[in-house]
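A common beginner's mistake is to predict each chain separately and then try to dock the pieces by hand. The better habit, illustrated here, is to supply every component at once so that their relative placement is modeled jointly.
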Amino acid sequence: MTTRNFTRRGVMKSTAVTAGGLALPTIFTGSSAAAFTNEPTGSTVTLGFNVPQTGAYAEEGLDELRAQQLAVEHLNGEGDGGMLNTFSSKVLDGTGIMGKRVEFVTGDTQTKSDVARATAQSMIQKDGAVMINGGSSSGVAIAVQGLCQEAGVIFMAGLTHSNDTTGKDKKRNGFRHFFNGYMSGAALGPVLEQAYGNERRAYHLTADYTWGWTQEESMIAATEALGWETVETVLTPVGAGDFSSYIAPVMNSGADVLILNHYGGDMVNSLTQAVQFGLRDRQVNGNNFEIIVPLYSELMAAGAGEAIKGVYGSMNWNWQLQDEGTAAFTRSFGEKYGFPPSGSAHTCYVQTLLYADAVTRAGSFNPCAVVEALEGFEFDGMGNGPTLYRAEDHQCFKDVLVMKGAENPTTPFDNLEIVEVTPVEQVMYEPDHPMFAGGDLGECNPGE
Amino acid sequence: MDAIILQILNGLDKGSAYALIALGLTLIFGTLGVVNFAHGALFMIGAFCAVTVQRLMQLSHTEIDESRTDFLGNPLQVEVPYLESWFGPELGQALISWSVPLAILLAIPVMMLVGWIMERGLIQHFYKRPHADQILVTFGLAIVLQEIIRQFYGANPIPTPAPDALRGSVDFGVWLGFGPGVIFYPVWRFVYFLFSLLIIGGVFAFLQFTTFGMVVRAGMADRETVGLLGIDIDKRFTLMFGIAAAVAGLAGVMYTPILSPNYHMGMDFLVLSFVVVVVGGMGSLPGAVLSGFLLGIVQSFASMNEVKAILPGIDQIIIYLVAIIILLTRPRGLLGRRGVMEE
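With all components supplied together, the output reads:
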């Protein structure tokens, strides 16, 4: 006997589900008449915020998310408007993006490339995100940038500092507001020369992944240009925890400077342990032994406690800047959350506004129109002075901050102090600079 | 020569942490037969006992400093610890700087309680289940525990410095006849090494020289016979779980000046500690300690530039390589006994 499971209700349900599924936005396979991936057709537009919400960089990711939510509020005309009031472009009027109310979905990258790609893909495929923004790692940024290029959406990178993001791995659909390793080296060089002279011997401990490699290369170039000698470069595993085995050989290497090309928890541990080993109390070659941390983050600097006092590093942006844009964003963020924003929060906020502005100026959400609007775009009022989104590599060029661990911080938020605002001219480089060679933006991909 | 001595010191230091965690793991496995994948989480909770004590000692009241402003331009609110108000800034800060050693006093009862709750509340229900089930449930428990800690303390590392008097480094080379400035080593790492020897010695003495320890050892050798003598061995084993948890917790407390506590630090140690236990021999307490120190030293030497120049990346795999070699030549581990996990 054959059992028939068909019922009228069941068939209707199945049909509805199938029709709904076909109507869902898809990537890689075109199934609608849309001109580009996830073209917003209703009264809203969805942005995808892909940040680490768990894992070692969760606090940084959550700070990015706070800033992204703030940006959405400002775009939708809520709150005090923040940097919309200081942004040199005036096309954003608080009515969303091109009249569409901005909504957002979030993904948890866990700072893992495969997870970040999966969450980005889910936001594009299932939630209809038209732009992906955020992240706290260059490895993740490069992976997600590649995915967005394939999917035909815009990627507005968050915290990614590897030269490769806008070098050998650059993509036409990807844009980076954050600075990079080369810029850190170029900004730090003159300050280090003034502070420590021209006859130094440097020892590098470097995180063994794309960011560490390019940061080390950049710092070697910058310091050797000063006349410093590179004694040794040592790669360390990410998340090593105890760096004592790597720090001990520094002591009798003849080096008088230790450059820690580490970020996040690795930076906290390697710096703290280097100080515990008494490196900064030593005299080598007639010089005081010094430590340099090329890339600083406020959140991680707090983890290092007193170990960062007097240690030089660099940042993309800091809330202590005195310009109008910084003041507006810091006030907005501080009043909402009770503490000042981090550098990673700032870059995500700015990227979100820049995307919205580019769409509005282009008059379209089409990624290729947005690319055209962003390439070569010059703006001001976002906290770093006059800024250029260079067309050749989609890298933002703006002033860079040289920082130092504060000797006497008065609050938990001012453990770093600004030593110098390095003008953009000093950190510029040619698009075909050898450290950025080997990549090709390729063609813009609108998807669908 | 100085480089070799430095790496031996580093190895002993790393080995101290491995040995303490592995000792606790082996105690639990030897007594209860449970493969406890939540043991790394106990190390982490111990570390956060230190953070808690530090925060308690830093409890503050707010004073308004009208002469300065905060990031929003409002008068600056300055947090002044009560200890500073009561004893003056210098003595107050000096007292606060001793929060890590003082945390031992909190960690012992807290960790024993946590261990007791874990054992009675969850793990006892898995004694008769396969080891795979035990691993899954304890691994899940570890994730739950670390997420609870993350909710309360955040994801960032929290600085927990050593006491002022024990910070910095000593010129150890001078004691060995080297010239001044050749071998500097952090004071706190010496403290950690000596502390671990004290704890390891204490555990062995407890098992060796007390009636309670004798019963536990008898129970580890033949649980049924001890039970037939009318001794409630389960109760003693539960207490041993608490002691093992306390050992892991104390290892975590004292490690905080070396590694700023973060909620996932236990996971970083867990896998390595299991390798240590397996290399030492399942169920063997002396094996766990010996293997901990041995692997710590081997790992340190593998990190030397001279070694990595010949074998790039060896520092990241050396522990597993040594484990493979030892298990191939001595399948029961260094001091493993016949019959343990060999059904």
